[in-house]
Amino acid sequence: MNIHEQLIRDEGSVPYAYQDTLGYWTIGVGHMIDRRRGGALPQPIIDALLGYDITEVNNNLSAHLPWFEVLDEARQAALINIAFNVGPSGMLAFHSFLTYMAANDFTKAAADLRTTKVYQQLPARYERIAKQIESGVWV
User: Fold this and answer.
1) Collapsing DSSP states into helix, strand and coil, what is residue 39?
2) Span 107-118, average pLDDT
3) Would you give the distance in Å from CA 27 to the centre of its chain?
4) pLDDT value at position 7?
5) C-alpha of 92 from chain center
6) How many domains in the chain?
7) How confident is the model at residue 46 (pLDDT cuts 50, 70, 90)?
8) Is there a contact between 65 and 93 (Cβ–Cβ < 8 Å)?
9) 15 and 48 fall within a common domain
């Protein structure tokens, strides 16, 4: 046995936020994240989680959109950004948008994106994404 194994045994290993026996929000192996007690996720963990999530979304898009890998980095990032927000399956429902993207008609793809409900909900974010798709330049 080592301290790693001992703490998992005694604290448990929980892959979601839960309230401990005192009602404080905790995650993982006893890592308190409750603001009331000064808890938080450390920035390196946040960065690692974001990196993991980006890789997962990238892999999902690569698996479902054969043309995704040939896009320039800025346009790939725009699609990752959308999928990160609405989920990969949510983005895959943007049929006309994806048809325009597959055809490299980025002007029409951006125009179509501007007609979506999510664009209406988050206009500043999606306008930046639309401009990035149109130009191929990071916005």
Assistant:
1) coil
2) 98
3) 20
4) 97
5) 14
6) 2
7) very high
8) no
9) no
